[in-house]
């Protein structure tokens, strides 16, 4: 059986490339609590303050969709494709994302504490003040993304990579890491949680940049005289 390719090596797909593209049905309505959305195409809609907690989105595509606020607690997104999606605020606590592809999208102020993300691929996204506290990220890649004020405090990161991405004021305090690859990050701006980088791989250049903060965490005083 061929070995599955690492998620950070994938190229983003177009809508027509999706294996279920021919089965998609345009959506026309509202999102409901506990709703089932299977092979649905969401195109150009704006959902404001929707209550779709516990909803299931399976083999569905979202293009140029805007979410403003709303409650999506414990919603499940399986084998979904999002392109050009804006998500302003919104409560996605304990939501589940599996085999999801998120391209050129911009979540801002979005809350995903306790969420589960497995085989999720972010490409050229802008994540601003996104809350991943205590989330579980497995085989997740952020490719050429900007992560600004993103909070991974208490999260578990396994097989996570950041190739070509810029990290600004990202928090990792009390996070648990395994096979986390930070070497490809363009900028490694970490505001908290340097001691949580145990289990991560960084480059020699990044080590030199982070050395002062590592020394501070260890209580080491560096002096030349």
TrEMBL record:
<protein>
    <submittedName>
        <fullName>Pentapeptide repeat-containing protein</fullName>
    </submittedName>
</protein>
<dbReference type="Pfam" id="PF13599">
    <property type="entry name" value="Pentapeptide_4"/>
</dbReference>
<dbReference type="InterPro" id="IPR001646">
    <property type="entry name" value="5peptide_repeat"/>
</dbReference>
<keyword id="KW-0677">Repeat</keyword>
